[in-house]
Amino acid sequence: MTSLASTVADTSLLWDLYRRMLLIRRFEERCNALFLQGRIPSTLHLYIGQEAVAVGVCSALRVDDYVTGTHRPHGHALAKGVSPRSIMAELMAKETGCCRGRGGSMHVGGMDVGMFPAVAIVGAGCPIAAGAALSAKMRGTDQVSVSFFGEGAANEGDWHEALNMAALWRLPVLYVCENNLYGASTRFERAFAVPSVASRACAYGMPGVEVDGNDVEAVRAVALEAVARARAGGGPTLIECHTYRLCGHSRSDACDYRPDDEEAEWRQRDPLLVTGARLTAPPHEVTAERMNDVEQEIAAVIDDAIAFAEASPSPNPAEVAAHVYWEGD
């Protein structure tokens, strides 16, 4: 498993990575509070603890590259550049939401920044990412597609078919596994007869890489290499990021199946703590004042998103059937 002590010599770049992760963390924490206050009508699958994966990968992409998310998509959307306002409005079921209030938490996205509205079906984003990559290849662009998925998706038929097609057609796509050890409450070892998801890459003729998913610099380095390979026509890469959600699978999950010592160990590896410690140490030596300032800046961004969402109109009930397809009589 790849882990890099410090590969980002540029303080401004490392600071940007940290700020993006902090935005995701504070956004998710506020979403949790809003849900408990009854101000968000749907359930939530929070991204707390996994921020380094989305930020590390998306920092290696261009705006016109494509991303597909999961049922835990807020972090992917924020990392790809979807605005906090449009995501918050979507969570509050408002017309100004990124899906006009029709999708909710599990369907956020924004095609203006290359993120397909997330699909909540486990593994369903994998063939969509392959399709986007095929489109780029057929159009002769050098766009790259990324599919984020949890390790549980790697046991779905969609996943296997998508990777097989991507390898056969040498598509410019990255398959990024966020292995947080638990598919809902089922531990990895109980669902897999192989030691890692990345070890399956050889069956499809593509590179498989394992990386510390709580190390944003390591994730970025692996993603940069895979993206460059994809743009050059080298085909897909399977990247397994070892990470941990510091919350339940969803709002109804008390996490009583996880050992206390395991949780404590992973909390010490919190990606914000890891990156924050690097920023405040040589050679970066970011001051405590600047660290506090960015907290205040991000709090203001989230306050603005909440105010925008709450002031936005609800969808028109008369349009409830708009954009819905069904077999007519």
Short overview:
The protein has helices spanning 11-36, 51-58, 74-80, 84-91, 125-139, 157-168, 216-231, 260-268, 271-280, 288-311; strands at 66-68, 145-150, 173-179, 182-183, 186-187, 208-212, 237-242.
Structure characterization notes:
The protein is 41% helix and 9% strand. It contains 10 helices and 7 strands. The strands form 2 sheets. It has a 5-stranded parallel beta sheet with strand order 1-2-3-7-6, with helices on both faces. The longest helix has 26 residues, at 11-36. Residues 2-7 have low confidence and may be disordered. The chain is α/β, with parallel strands linked by helices and 329 residues long. It has one domain (11-310): Rossmann fold. The relative contact order is 0.17.
Features:
329 residues, alpha/beta, Rossmann fold, two-stranded antiparallel ribbon, 10 helices, 7 strands
Q: Any chance you could write out the topology, listing elements then pairs?
A:
Blueprint: H1 11-36, H2 51-58, E1 66-68, H3 74-80, H4 84-91, H5 125-139, E2 145-150, H6 157-168, E3 173-179, E4 182-183, E5 186-187, E6 208-212, H7 216-231, E7 237-242, H8 260-268, H9 271-280, H10 288-311
Parallel strand pairs: 1-2, 2-3, 3-7, 6-7
Antiparallel strand pairs: 4-5
Helix pairs in contact: 1-2, 1-3, 1-9, 1-10, 2-3, 2-7, 4-10, 5-6
